[in-house]
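S.,

Sequence below, as promised.
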Amino acid sequence: MQAVAGVPSTESQPPRPPPNIGILRWSRSCMIGTDHRVYCWGFGEEGLRKSPIVMPSLGVAEDLAGGALTCALQVGGTVRCVNRLGETKPAVGDFGPDPSPWVDVRRLGGSHVVSCAVTQLGTLSCLGVAFAELGMPKGATFFARGPELMAHDKPVPLAIPGKASAVVLAGTIPGHHACVLRDDRTLACWGENGAGQVGDGTVVERALPVVLGLRDVRSVALGVGSSCALDGAATVWCWGAVVRQTSPTPVPELATSTAIAVSGDFGVCGVMSGVPRCLHEGQAKELKALKSAVELVPYDEYLCARDTQGRGRCLKWGLGTAFEVGLPG
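The prediction came back faster than expected:
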């Protein structure tokens, strides 16, 4: 299948998965196909692979998250992880813990340096480098800005109010923060807060999760210094750098959204009647090249979308046409 006309092939474009594999889940440089196998192009000593490869060590997957490791949730609640070279064992000079660090898992989450899991009991634990999202045991302290960073190769429990159902992390430096979606569909966030991305009305860094006033939250999207949530009434709420607010603020330009994403280049985006619409620096723009979208995935300077047929398309800011990265299953 050819790329959509008008977009030249470049080294920076995410490559296509193998023919006849639809996209079921997508997490940056890896995806779960409709065959439930994991395909990645972000591993290898040579750097970014030009073509995605099957990762047999990640098994038959239901959920996927990148971070300190790339981890895949298996049927039955176990988790398999690989390091940046795609190995299930530690690499020389690289962080590489137990390839199966969690059991009885419900959801996964990850950022650049941290991987987290929510269990069926609603508990949360993380491993990786102890930046703002990864609190120390009992939430006593963490290393968000200090000169010393601590690497945890085994999951560290994080104290959260209530029971978690999902976790989302933002992981670029600076701007590390995290949010947990709780079983009662409320939201708690913590971490670095210089732009108000925690959402508690302040710019004070938070070591422990702060429960926000949002209700009936269905999904959460985080970016550098920015946070957004989608509620059951299809209202998009944002706080932090993307809207320059320190508390959740409704975004009327994205009303009736069914999926959301936060991207440095695109701002906050919502899928409205299958078409992504993005609010960037106060200007709203429809991305018709990504029509029929059901999921949005930021990928470096691109915004990518999975459509109703399991295909993926990516669009670079400023261009009017997209190129395909997936084929129907």
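Residues 1-12, 89-97, 131-147 have pLDDT under 50 and may be disordered.

Coffee later?
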